[in-house]
Design brief:
Largest sheet: 5 strands, parallel
Distance between the termini: 79 Å
Helix content: 25-40%
Number of strands: 12
Radius of gyration: 20 Å
CATH topology of the largest domain: Rossmann fold
Order of helices and strands: EHEHEHEHEHEEEEHEHHEE
Oligomer: single chain
């Protein structure tokens, strides 16, 4: 008779947490799934970055782990940061110090190089989640500027004579930042720092794409914006209705 395998003991987190794993190697995908599941996470796996970021279920992930064996670490990190504020871990083959630093500058929270310890990786990811999800936060108040109202509880924005519109976490942070500095131009670098939480150097494309998405929700005509105004070469300014 064969021996029954010992049950996997999961280190259960106190939160309902999903993780998105992007890996184009089936054996490594199985290992990463095991590591994350043992840490108490529900895992959604995809073989390509674009495919994973387009998955509606994966888009709610609190952790994104990218372990693609080819490509630019910086480009991968920037691509993820265009779509989500989730914790971002990158597993890479041995790279130069410059490559790894660029990945951190582009928004990665953790970069691990192969070969790596599965046990240690699990602990590192668990520590990231514990710091991110376990901190006590104070409820943000509602904001109203002119005729524009932002509700943090429902993450919606309401404009005069229009129904409330739900925002993504990144869109909410952008609008919140602009409302705190109403009628003042906020530099692109400051927006990157406030919205994504990392050094704003090289974040112009991130901000430009996010501004486009926000304008589709708050402007009557996104091609001729009246509220979220561009100050060329500097940043963006909120000019709300009624101001």
């Amino acid at each position: 008779m064969g021996c029954k395998p010992a049950p996997v003991r999961r280190m259960v987190l106190e939160w309902d947490v999903n993780a998105l794993v992007i890996c184009n190697d089936s054996e490594e995908m199985a290992l990463l799934r095991f590591v994350l599941q043992r840490a108490g996470l529900a895992v959604v796996g995809h073989g390509a970055l674009e495919e994973g970021l387009a998955d509606p279920v994966a888009r709610s992930a609190r952790l994104v782990l990218v372990a693609v064996r080819a490509g630019s670490l910086k480009s991968e990190a920037l691509r993820v940061r265009r779509e989500t504020e989730a914790l971002l871990a990158v597993v890479a083959s041995m790279r130069s110090e410059d490559d790894i630093c660029q990945a951190y500058e582009a928004g990665a929270d953790l970069v691990v190089t192969r070969p790596y310890s599965a046990r240690l990786l699990g602990m590192q990811l668990r520590a990231l989640l514990r710091r991110s999800l376990g901190s006590v936060t104070t409820a943000m108040p509602s904001y109203s500027v002119g005729g524009m109202a932002l509700d943090p509880l429902t993450r919606t924005v309401r404009l005069p004579e229009r129904s409330p519109c739900r925002l993504t976490p990144l869109e909410f942070r952008l609008l919140h930042t602009l409302m705190l500095h109403v009628n003042q131009t906020v530099p692109t670098e400051t927006i990157v720092d406030r919205v994504w939480g990392f050094d704003g150097a090289g974040g112009t494309e991130l901000v430009r794409g996010l501004v486009r998405r926000l304008r589709r929700k708050v402007e009557e005509n996104a091609r001729a914006p009246k509220y979220v105004v561009t100050e060329p070469g500097i940043g963006y300014r909120l000019e709300p209705p009624g101001e």
